[in-house]
Amino acid sequence: MMTAVKAYYDGKNFIPLQKYNFKQNQYVLIVVDDSNDTETPAQKFLKLSWEGPESADEILEKINCNVSNSNRFEGDNALFD
Predict the structure, then answer these.
(1) Considering the entire predicted model, what is its pTM?
(2) Can you tell me whether residue 6 is helix, strand or coil?
(3) DSSP string covering 27-72
């Protein structure tokens, strides 16, 4: 079985961004994301342009009013933590 764990490299070590109980001397497979895309989806959204009278704050307010939390991806070591 394989588990995906998000992490970042600090120049010396890989720092996991998710909880995972690594075993001492455990082998890992590291897949590097070469895109260097550090923007969050929200930051990308805010860079989009649109036509309409609403300000970005008004649009975000509408989105936040309609957001509901989903528990379908909950659990330890879930891919979408």
Answers:
(1) 0.41
(2) coil
(3) -------TT-----HHHHHHH----SS--HHHHHHHHHHT-----T
